[in-house]
Every structure is written in C-alpha cells, then in structure tokens.
C-alpha cells in the first residue's frame, strides 16, 4: 500500500473541506436511527426502553413503574435479530454514501444513502451481511484473537460489495467476503495501525461528552474510504 496514513488523513480533510455540514448530518442521522432501533430492541427484550430505564433508576415517580408489569415479548430474540441486521445494513448504507462521495464528490440525500442497502440490491446486501456476521461470530466463538483477525480480514466487504454492485455485477453471498479476505492478506496490520492512529481523536470525542464525535466519525470514515480505494483501486468496479 503506497499511500501513507498521513496522506489518507490529509486526503480526507481535503475532501471534507466545505462539506462538513453534510458529512456531520449523515453521521448524526445514521447514529440517531441506530439509537432508535436499539431502543426498540431494548423495549421488547427487557420491557423498557433506554430512556425509561435511566429515568426509573434515578427517579422515584411511581407512575413510571407501569412498564415493570409489561411481559417481555416471547419473540424478543426475533426482534433482536431483525434489529441487528437492520443496524448492520444501515451502517453499510453510511459506508456506501461516503464511498460514493469519495469517488465522485456526489453528496447523496442523507436518508436515501443510509437506506440504500434496503432499496437497491437488497438480496445481495442482506445475504452478504448475514454471512459476514455469521463468519465473525463463529470465529469469535473460537477465541477473541482469531475473531479480531477475521474482523480485519473481512473489513473491506461492504466497500467491495458496493463496487461490484455499481459495476452491474450481482455477487454471490460470499463473493465480497472472500474478495476482502484476499485483498487484506498482508494488509490487516496496516488497517489495525490505521485504526490505532485515531485513538487520540476518539478520546477527545469522549472527553467532549460525545459532541466531538460528530466530526470525528465522518473524518474516520472518509479516511477509511481512502484506505480502501488506495488498496483496491478500481479492480472490483470493472
């Protein structure tokens, strides 16, 4: 990989210059949707949503105790599965939107971009994501370290899948995953160090009560899109 981490970050800052408002909105809306879905899942699993749980723990209002009487949905596991897949595809939607922006400067409608895995080539997105998660879970069950290694091995899956779909190719459920594994052969440590280089930024975001993350997340994702394009070129977009 010829491009250095410093160059990838400089490219990201240049690409985001004048576009921070759109990038921050994309990141925030994506986070908000994930939060709402997680809240719904929490309600079906525990009989209370996240906000209610916080209020109940720190307040004494008896009227808030009504949810304690809610019987937990026996199909909570199914809700959890559906929500988990939805969150994963929404995350991929954010990645897709950023990669499109990185490649051609197009600032897609935020909601259209976030939900693009549901509205375009849903079958390929759904099946690839399901197998992607299954493989990671199985490797993690073996040991944490093999799971972490495979997480980096499969890290380029959504980027590759988008390139394949944009080129008009309808990949099999494992094609993008296998391509990511081959692409990352010899480069997993590069991505790991790339991630480590953002630790200071993440800490700064936490110290700022999460406010700084509104800018740090787009910066990181933009730089990671540059990492992918620098590594893969256009070999999957043909």
UniProtKB/TrEMBL annotation:
<feature type="transmembrane region" description="Helical">
    <location>
        <begin position="126"/>
        <end position="149"/>
    </location>
</feature>
<protein>
    <submittedName>
        <fullName>DUF975 family protein</fullName>
    </submittedName>
</protein>
<feature type="transmembrane region" description="Helical">
    <location>
        <begin position="75"/>
        <end position="99"/>
    </location>
</feature>
<keyword id="KW-0812">Transmembrane</keyword>
<feature type="transmembrane region" description="Helical">
    <location>
        <begin position="20"/>
        <end position="38"/>
    </location>
</feature>
<feature type="transmembrane region" description="Helical">
    <location>
        <begin position="191"/>
        <end position="216"/>
    </location>
</feature>
<dbReference type="Pfam" id="PF06161">
    <property type="entry name" value="DUF975"/>
</dbReference>
<keyword id="KW-0472">Membrane</keyword>
<dbReference type="InterPro" id="IPR010380">
    <property type="entry name" value="DUF975"/>
</dbReference>
<keyword id="KW-1133">Transmembrane helix</keyword>
